[in-house]
Fold each of these.
Amino acid sequence: MIPISTYPRAEAPRKAILVLFAALAATAAAFCIYYSIATHPMAVMMSKPEGEMDWLRSEFNLTDDQFAKIKALQQAYQPKCNQLCIRILEANANLDQLISSNTAVTPEVEAALKQCAAVQEDCHRAMLGHIYAITAQMNPASRDRYLQMMRKWIIQPRLGVDTAISRPPGNG
Amino acid sequence: MEDNSLLKKKLETWEVNPRIPSGFQREVWQRTAVKETARRNSFKYQLIEWTVSLLVTPRYAAAIILAGAFMGIAVAQVEATSTNSNSSQSLENRYVGTIDPYQHISSR
């Protein structure tokens, strides 16, 4: 047991309360300072219009040279991506209209479905081509992580990558 | 009226001669001292006294303030990890939106 302090009786509780307040203030200050320092880089990326490219750079430890090449690839891919977006919207609008105006799967509806599937295939092909082009610029470790991350966006996004596990032949 | 004058007369002649028992003061002080001792011996009082003595000792006060700062950092670390994880996921989605036309359309 710590010996009772020699502080005057009225003074001691006041000092003790001050120490408690100082401890609380130190806790709050440490929290605010550490939190703002620790989250600052991500907050900057989130607020920037092209923050996702900065995120890619930091997440996959890209060098300046790798980042410049990937950025160029990204810029070259954008018109193709926009074109695919337009095709998706057109194919979806066409299918939507045919679904409303038909009560059975007519040859027109079938053609519209095929059109949607074709656009989806083109999207996946273009996206996968772009992903491979990007991985070609990365270090082996980053390449594997990047492919692992992108896999889930290519293989049936709604189902998840674990549904695509290859089965040995003859196991159904 | 007659009752009032009678009451007035009685009040004028009323004298209070309090008889304080001998040792009354001593007994009061004794009782107060017993209660004070009991209070000081109680666990609650001892705990408060000990805490106060701890807090006013400079090295312990410094240790408590330092412990508070470390606690703040520890909690901030946990919160920052969670915030950064959410931000990272959000940036990943944004990135995918730049290369996946379907994601791009749905994020508009």
Note: Residues 58-99 of chain B form the longest helix (42 residues).
Amino acid sequence: MTKANQDLIKKLEIQAARALEEKANTEALFASIGEGVIATDTKGTIIRVNKPALEILGYRKTDLIGHWFTEAVVAVNVDGSIVDNQQRPIAKAYLTGRTIIERIYYMRNDGTIIPVLVNVSPVLMRGKPIGAILIFRDMSEEMRNDRLKMDFIGIASHQLRTPLTAVVTYAHMLEENFGGKLSDIQLSFVNVIITASRRMNELVGTLLNITRIEAGNIRVEPKLVQIENIVQEIMDELKPEADSKRIKLDLAVKAELERIKTDKLLVHEVFANIISNAIKYTPPGGKIMITITDRFNDIVVSVKDNGYGIPVEDQRYIFIKFFRSSDAMKHDVSGTGLGLYLTKVLVDNLGGEIWFKSLRNKGTTFFVSLPRSGLERKAGQFTLEI
Amino acid sequence: MIQKPKSLYLKVVRITDHYLGPAADRFIRRQIENHLNKHPEELAQADLKELISWIEVSMAVLTADRKIIREYLAKLQSLISSKH
């Protein structure tokens, strides 16, 4: 064997040893992650899975490796029905190219259902998608605590409603001089009571809506409605708020829109939240443009502002309950982090989708699509609190 | 009379409609907007290769039927060589 050949063999041996070491390191890293991790290839086949993932799902490695992810790891709704493939976080991650963080339910090997928080991202190599990586953790304990917390909030909110109504009614009576003429200073005090009570009333309403909708207790009553009319109604309601900040609210309807069968109350709450947020997070003198277009099977409403925008690092969390962006807290200290969560849940209930684009200090555009095919009636104990 | 779609985007949607039905438009529109950062109507022939690679991985989580996926991708590939 020539010296050149020997050198080449040695070189190859070193490279092979390095590759093996790198592989072992990657395996060790993968195995040491405390949360469940599953990696898939371009065909959606599971190519790697770690021990916590197997423990959470109750499978053996051979049950998953080499199997089609969508079928091997079954995602279900809270009622046990199978989640549509297009609604699964992995599909959304591929559709958007972004990391998707969602709370969903997986069916374990023994048929039990567990809530999990999934974080899924497409994996790119030189800009080309080569698969996806899913990180998830069992949320059972957190969900139990969350449920107890929401039950408590639900009861407390309900109990707050009655005394709050009395405070608001009597404050208005004082304002109208039913208890005798008030001095200017007394009137200003009463106005503070009215404003604060209104805010508290809104918060109680939001909390009640969330507890009821999470319990599947909200009635859905579809009727033929014109989306344009609902949006116009909301714009009229929010005009004083916009005027007080000299914000221009405009509406453009770019299609001949037919009426669709949907729940007016839910649609109203969705757009009232989005437009009111746009006003809140747009500086004085700003502009908000609402556009309604139609797309094959949907009506799409976009709300574009030239406000503060959402920082990139916060964008993936904004539909998560109680999350507040650092920038949002600077501009509106009184927010609760519930508005967009509620909006997302309502849009889901309407069979639609919500997404956004945002650039810091340039503005945000929220998009909501609603199916033109309409909605089915859904029984429930309550209607939405407005 | 059925009219031929004018834009490349509509051609892609029309092919996709056969496989995804009513979800076709939303599926394609979001891929174009999110991955190519373009308005769907601005989709150009040069974008098709990248778009198809995203469609391929997305379809792979929607169906395990590789035959259908291959057939669908082949129809999309034919748009690359066709005159638009």
Note: The helical segments of chain B are 8-20, 24-35, 48-62, 66-81.
Amino acid sequence: MILRMSRARVLGPRAALPRTLEVLQDLGFLHLSAPASAPALAPGSLSPRELRLERQLRRMLDDVETALAQLGGKEPAPGPSPPPAPPWTAWARSARRTRHEADRLRERTQALNEERALLAKYQEVMTAFGGLFQRGVAPGVRAYLVVLRSGQGANLEKLRALLDVALRKDYELRSHPLAGGELVLLLLVPVGTAAHVERLLAESAVEQVPLPRGYEGQSLTDAVPRMVQRLHAIPGELAELDALRARMSERAAGLALARAVIQDRLARLDGLRLAASSAHAFVLEGWIPTTNLPDLVGRLAERVGPEVAVEEVAAEQWTAEAPVVLQNPRLFRPFQLLVGMLPLPRYGTIDPTPFVAIFFPLFFGLMVGDVGYGLLLFGTGLVLRWRSIPASRLRAVSEIAIGCALFTVIFGVLFGEFFGDLGRRWFGMRPLVLDREEPRDIVSFLGLCVALGLVHVVLGLALGVASAFRGHRRQAVGRGLSAVMILLIAAALLAVLKVLPHALLTPLVVALLVLFPLLVVAEGLVAPVELLSTVGNILSYARIMALGTASVMLAVVANRLAGAAGSLVVGIVFGLLFHLVNFLLALFSPTIHGLRLHYVEFFGRFYSPGGVQYRPFRHWRTT
Amino acid sequence: MQIFWITLSAATAIAIPALATAWAQSRIGPAAAASLAEKPELSTTVIVMLAIPETMSILGFVVAMFIMFRAGG
């Protein structure tokens, strides 16, 4: 359900405004909203001093948040309680210093990583020829590294022939294939022939390996040993930087406290903007859950003084839509996650969470309907619940999974399914209601699903009537007529199929013909199209049968294939794998289609999105 | 011969909607991926959008089953 809200107006002497905001922030009930304009009231604004303070706080916050982000790691919890007089100057200095140091650390780490990555590209070459360079190349010898691209291996012989003629075999040429298919060549020649060799290399269109940045001017014989040495030194330097970062992280808790205090102070400055004031008095307005209103009155009187008064603004004077708080019984609460995937419902409309909590696991159970898969899902849900923290999304997911698992087991018992037909073959399980492998029962199953769709959609229309009744009477009448006509159409179809007495057909058709013009009057010319679309939506529930039948057929196929494997071990492994795939499919498809049936077929009849999120004015906390 | 036509009819009843679903989802998929890259909060809409064309396959499956059952297959 959507929690009932009140609009509270807080009035008091202007001097008490800062203290009132502090207390309201401590209480954390009131969702502040600008008060209605009145001739004697000036809208809230900040003094030049407060504006300067705000600018300084925002700069400081920027430093603190950047420093915390640079330090990385787990989000530190702020300290136990903020000091009564925050040491702004010390915090500002510490934040700025930490930010700069963290910036430098990050840049240095990035540079070292880039250098290591660059040198690593040469590592294969250095490994191949490293021994030669470490022993040292004789003085008077110039070394060249050349790469022959993949498929240019024939050029090696051409180059060798050219060098034989030009240098009269006074050279050494070694080759080494690289992992990428290229061939790297190391050419050692007398210094005196260097110019001639370089010309030859250029004419042969082979590519010299350029030395990395920082080594460009050096000869290969000087550069390679230095590059090897550097590659070995970089991990040590990175470890030193990590240690430095770990030492700096000790400041993170202090910075987190500073951030919380700054955020709170900025929120109070924003609160001042939302307070209208006259020469001597202030007015603050906001939304509060009705149940919390007496508490607000008492606590303000107690902590600020009797000069501050609170009054409730009558609903007729509300100038904006109240924010929305969804509050449901413990059993239904996890399903708020599924409703929360859509924009919030508007205040005064219907929260569909209880209906989702009943129908979503029901549809899921009908689709999967297998004791074995249900138990697997139940186990998965329990593990997720154990690994999650209270009130987290994961906790909600785990509880939804447990609910769905229970329905899956119940329908599994009713359908007599345990990993498909394994229960029947091993334990003699028998279907109690429907046998989803029998063609006749599948048709009955289809009828059940469409009937369930009828109930769900008509319930949606009824909720639509209730939702529209207060504001849009004509719309409410239209939805009500649609619901009645859908029921009449269903009854007429049953009369045609002789499930109901055939004599009812004529009165039902007459009733439909009478109601049709009324529907057009209430909803306009689109009404017939809407009605047809509603019938289509009901038929869409056939997907429950289709997915359920596909699920059981896959499970049966898994068992048959496992049995046909010929070997016990291969059969078991194959069966387990196939069932695992089917289980994963059974998690995915029924969830998506269950959601779709709710979001499109059910919510479409009554859901009114666009609600404002309730954001009480309170102390800052990490999200 | 009759069994051939029954089987062919059932196969066609599921095959054509399946191809249509595949075509629709092939158009929705890239658009959905692009939208999610820009606005991850649209994930629910994307899921619903992707599930909508599957209705064709599901109804095709239902029709195919009816063809088989009515023919005593």
Note: Chain B touches chain A through 17 residues (CB under 8 Å).
Amino acid sequence: MKKIEAVIKPHKLDEVKEALHALGVTGMTAYDVKGFGRQKGHTEVYRGNEYTIDFVPKTKIELVVSDEMASKVEQAIVDAARTDKIGDGKVFTFDCVGAVRIRTGERGDDAL
Amino acid sequence: MPAIDTGSTAWMLVSAAMVLFMTPGLALFYAGMVRSKNVLSSTMHSLFAMGLVSVIWAVIGYTLAFGPDTGGVVGGLKFFGLDGVLGSVTGIGTSAIPTSVFAMYQGMFAIITVGLITGAVAERMKFKAYVIFAALWALLVYSPLAHWVWGGGWLAQLGALDFAGGTVVHIASAAAALAAAIVLGKRKGYGTEEMRPHNIPMSVLGAGILWFGWFGFNAGSALGSGQLAGSAFMATNLSAAAGMLMWSLAEVLTGHKPTVLGAASGAVAGLVGITPAAGFVGPMPALAIGAITGLACYFGLRLKSRFKFDDALDVVGVHGVGGTTGAILTGVFASVAVNSAGANGLLFGGGLALLGKQLVGVGATIAFSFTVSFIILKLLDATMGIRVDAETESNGLDVAEHAETGYEF
């Protein structure tokens, strides 16, 4: 099994979700994060005080898929999340050594 | 028993309630500007003042402020515990209202004045120390000052004009705020760490409530319903509007975007400026006062970086600069055509006479409030310490001082 983590632009979440749905992916987790890579931050001003904000709001998604699905899923995320503008994000793939469905006790690929 | 005017009484009852409402409005205004880990601490400063100062005012504050004059300095103890207040009447003719209403109305001013100071102490003051400071300040600074200006004391006798509290409320609280900022010291990380407002919508809601309540604050200071309340109401709205427009314009002209916090702050600055002038000036002068005060406060914010003190929420920059500007402009624009009980300012044939008296009022207020506040704070700091420890300051005051978290996500 492989765990895929992706940092994407928040407004791309729905598109990515639809693309993964089309592939038959059955579940994922998403949460709000902030981060930066090469994308510069921005300046905010409050009562005359300037603040350089390095961190930009992003969305992180996590999902675990079977080994066969991994590269298709990775590509689907890349295609759906790309805007060709700086700050599109990254996709990481890790080995996942265990998975259990809590309700039924199914393990491995059966848990996915 | 002399008759009361029911119209004026009704208006004053509503005004008193409106002024009280300004304190939770202030709570929202301030709390939105601190970091979320301190939202409750900030809110509690204003909320608790509503309880603490209400009681102090009733027991002894009112009498010290509005009791029969003693030496021009204080009111004495005739109305201790509001003795004799029920059933009596204040004012005459169409402005005759129950003394109880007058006493309550004035008490609401004391509450918010204390609340205003807390902008300077945000994010680092011990709550216990704040409570003791607030109680002593209401007693030793606010009540005497109210007496000097409104209770027949020496500033009133001098002829300085302060319709609704430019000195008693705004300059006094700003001077105290300056003393507090100095004694407390700067927040950890001030200048290097990011300290952004955590909830600007909250601050804007607060500013809106302040604007609304200010009609009670200024127009209610006519102490009756009629032409004077009407002109004060008008001046109040126009000054708020001009203040907002001028602040936004200043932001744009200095190369920035027009900010939401700036627009709200500009309105508040305009309202501060018109406070001493509201019942003495016409509508067009009110616009001028709002615009000039808005601009003055926009640049007044720079005082704290210039003089290196951490006035977290700009009490000095807005209420100090605004109150002073308004007091001076009252000496410029006041007209007896608007209020025969007032005087003529510089542009209305009065020469420099009124202006001089205004400056005395400003100077006396700053000196008195700053000095007494500084002494109280130094004593408290020496005995119980007024600043939280470094770890509490880093983690935020809400959990350590109040065992609560503002937000649960």
Note: Chain B has a mean pLDDT of 97.
